[in-house]
Amino acid sequence: MSKMKKVIPILLAFLFLWLTDQQVIEANTAYKTFTEDGYGRYVETQTAYTVKQTIVKFDDELFKQAADLKIGKDGLFYIADSGNQRILVGNKNEELVRVIGKDILKKPNGLFLSHDDKLYVADEVAAKIFVFSLEGELLKEFGKPDSILFGKKEPFVPEKVAVDKRDNIYIISRGNSNGIIQINANNGDFIGYFAPNQTVVSPLTAFRKAIFTEEQLSKMIDSIPATAKNINLDEKGLVYTVSQGEKVEAIRKLNVGGKNIIETDVYDPFPVSIETGSLENIFVAGENGFIYEYTSEGNLLFVFGGRDDGRQRVGLFSKISAVALDEKDQIYALDPEKNQIQVFQPTEFANLVHTALRLYQNGDYQASKAPWEEVIKLNSLFDFANLGLGEAYFKEENYKEALASFRLAKYKTGYSDAFWEIRNEWMRKYIIHFLVLIIGLVVMKKILDWVEKKYQFWHRFKQKVTKKYEFKLVKDLLFLKNLLRHPLDSFYRIKHENKTSVLSATVLMFLFFIIFILEKYFSGFIFRFVKDGVFEIGSDFAFVIAAFLLTIISNYLICTINDGESTFSHMYSGFIYSFAPYFIFKPFLILISNVLTFNEVYLLNLANFLIYTWIAVLLFLMIMELNDYTIRETFKIIFLTLFLMLITALLLFIVYVLISQMIQFVISVFNEGVYRVENG
User: Fold this and answer.
1) What is residue 214's predicted lDDT score, i.e. its pLDDT?
2) How far apart are CA 377 and CA 396, in angstroms?
3) How many helices (H) and strands (E) does the chain have?
4) pLDDT for 64-90, tens place per residue?
5) Which residues does 331 contact at the CB level (< 8 Å), separation at least 6?
6) Could you give the residue ranges of the DSSP H alpha helices within 245-378?
7) Are 38 and 383 in contact (CB under 8 A)?
8) CA–CA gap between residue 244 and residue 342 (Å, rounded)
9) Which fold has domain 47-346?
10) 337 neighbors 319 (Cβ within 8 angstroms)
């Protein structure tokens, strides 16, 4: 017993030191790990993968410009050793098993292991797809399809290859923008092109196509969609591709019909390889050395790695050409310049995230809550954990907790769904009380109207106050409601009876700013476009005041040189008073937006459309009435005003740039002078 008392503290101390050492190892990686928050921004998180091993050769066979990597069912590595014109097959002990394709292959660039244990090799120099047995016997080879549907002038430079369970070969050919080439693996017949990338048409290009003649369009450079960079398939037969230079759908998960079924907001600009894991998670490697892990639905879990600066640090790359995963979800990343494979193993944090994700995907929502909560304890900024926790609560019909979790995750769709359920429950519980309250208010209003009509208490009170006090500013502000009922008459009275003033218009302009701030920062969460905790009141104020003054002054100057009859004070008042629908109705929409969901978003959009259309009509009538213009002249004035505003904005921007450069020059000269003085 006494010996045990001595041994236990030693074991505990050893365990403590071992755990501390493990944490230090994870914390001192040469790279950082990031995840995506609810706004699509990178936030740092715990290390998700650490380097376990580095493979530089199989026995004495080194790699040279290795282009691709696959891992077989038996755990063997198949490496497209492009520089040595061969396929190397080795095991995890770095032992060479065999060499495939020697004296046959020219430049093997892509590999794929088929469901029937065959090795497909895309050779871009030989311009063929070679099919080998896993023992290295050449079984078949496929060249350029001779079908007229393929196209006589279309290039066939196979870079990557994949094969589905129906024996359809998918080939990526460099420079062929028609899509992924499909060939039948049994007879070599050309099946067709699959899922071509879409061309991203800029607004300028669309405008040119609308106004240019056919001859002019023929001289323009055609917008050719990018060719996919790599391809892979999962067990379900879904096709995954990555493309470079694409602003849209750089990562695609394609169904049988060639339709992309995922969307990713965060992706590498130069993806080169794509692979799937045991959870159907998607792993993408970027050419610049970063590795991304997404869920099967396209949510970013982790991104890590990066480019090595020449110090040969573990976990960083000169370049990545391929990425592969084994049955334990260990990541194998191939570096063709360092000529090595770095093996990454998941950390406890990554395993915790994967455990929660696995339980949720299997429908065990109750069990998934505990690991999600543990992830949040370890990193409160890991928004995907809040999203997963919210989904688990929602499946359990615990909508209040789901609402809170979705709010933390900034997940508007889930928040809307949870709020819909909570609102329905509230309405079922209190709908009778609500109706009674409405009926009571209506009855009360009827009674007050009857009393006022008979005894005129309120009317007499207003008359006494009006006689005793002369509130010119209040009268001017209340004139706002006349714009809604009699706009032409109101603009006439502004011009000839001075029913408004510069002071009242300025007060309304500040009221506009207050409503603008309320809409921007205090609308319902699902209709708000600003990030939580971000307040830019100063810049908002400058923007609103500058926009008003620039528009009013530009319009006044244009009207002045076009025989306009309005004074600046009338133009100033008329312009601001034309926003009457905004002042009167917008506050109600801001309040209502806090109790609406995405199911009623059309109501909010319709109301906003009517408000802004109403304002546009009032502005048009204001310019026409105050300046005594015809409808045609008014359109001309509006166009010239917009043009002047554009020119003014460009001039102000140029002045800003020149002043900024002058300030930077003065600062650099001052710093240079200080440096020379200090260094003699």
Assistant:
1) 65
2) 22
3) 18, 27
4) 999 999 999 989 999 999 999 999 999
5) 49, 283, 291, 323, 324, 325, 343, 344
6) 348-361, 365-378
7) yes
8) 24
9) Neuraminidase (2.120.10)
10) yes
Determine the pLDDT at residue 197. 82
How far apart (Å, rounded) are the C-alpha atoms in residues 122 and 162?
A: 9
The pLDDT, as a whole number, for residue 15 is 37
Decide: 334 and 289 in contact? Cβ < 8 Å: no
Cβ contacts of residue 491 below 8 Å, gap of 6+? 574, 621, 622, 625, 626
Phi and psi torsions of 181, nearest 5°: -75, 135
Question: With contact defined as beta carbons under 8 Å apart, do 317 and 308 qualify?
Answer: yes
Distance spanning both ends of the chain, measured CA to CA: 76
The structural domains of the chain, with segments of one domain joined by +, span 47-346, 348-469, 471-660
As a dihedral over the C-alpha atoms of residue 233, residue 238, residue 244, residue 250, rounded to 10 degrees, the angle is -150
Per-residue 3-state assignment (H helix, E strand, C coil) for 438-453: HHHHHHHHHHHHHHHH
- The answer to whether 127 and 156 are in contact (CB under 8 A) is yes
Q: What angle do CA 529, 533, 535 make, to 5 degrees?
A: 75
Neighbours of 541 (CB within 10 A): 14
Q: Please name the helix (run of DSSP H) or strand (run of DSSP E) that holds residue 10, with its range, or none.
A: helix 2-27
Tokens 């969609």 — which residue? 225
Residue 392 CA to residue 144 CA, distance in Å, equals 51
How many Å apart are CA 554 and CA 575, to the nearest integer?
12
Q: Which token pair is 605?
A: 């959009």
Contact 260, 252 (CB under 8 A): yes
Phi, psi for 291 (deg, rounded to 5): -120, 130
Q: With 0-12 CB in 10 A as exposed, 13-18 as middle and 19+ as buried, what is 551?
A: middle
Show the beta-strand stretches assigned E in 72-197.
Answer: 77-81, 86-90, 96-100, 108-113, 118-123, 128-133, 138-142, 158-163, 168-173, 180-184, 190-194
- d(CA 419, CA 412) in angstroms, rounded, equals 10
Cα distance between residue 126 and residue 511, in whole Å: 73
Spatial contact of 531 and 39, defined as CB atoms under 8 Å apart? yes
Class of domain 348-469: mainly alpha
Find residue 639's DSSP bridge partners. Answer: none
Q: What integer pLDDT is reported at residue 357 of this predicted model?
A: 93
By 3-state DSSP, what share of the chain in percent is helix, strand and coil, each rounded to 5? Answer: 50, 20, 30
Q: What is the pTM of this model?
A: 0.80
Q: Cα dist. 670→57, 59, 656, 660 in Å?
A: 56, 61, 21, 15
Residue 337 φ then ψ, to 5° = -95, -40
Helix (H) or strand (E) holding 335: strand 331-335
CA distance 488 to 270: 59
| Cα angle 368, 374, 378; round to 5 | 145
Cα separations (Å) of 159 from 183, 245, 257?
Answer: 15, 17, 23
Q: How far apart are the C-alpha atoms of 537 and 539, rounded to whole Å? A: 6
Q: What tokens does 521 get?
A: 């920062």
Backbone torsions φ then ψ of 183, nearest 5 degrees: -130, 140
Residues in the chain with pLDDT values less than 50: 1-27
In this structure, how many other beta carbons lie within 10 angstroms of the beta carbon of residue 624? 19
Give strand ranges (E) for 40-115. 42-45, 49-55, 57-58, 61-62, 68-71, 77-81, 86-90, 96-100, 108-113
DSSP letter, residue 134: T
Q: Considering only CA atoms, which of 148, 144, 112 is closest in space to residue 126?
A: 144
Taken in order 166, 228, 86, 339, is the CA torsion positive or negative? negative
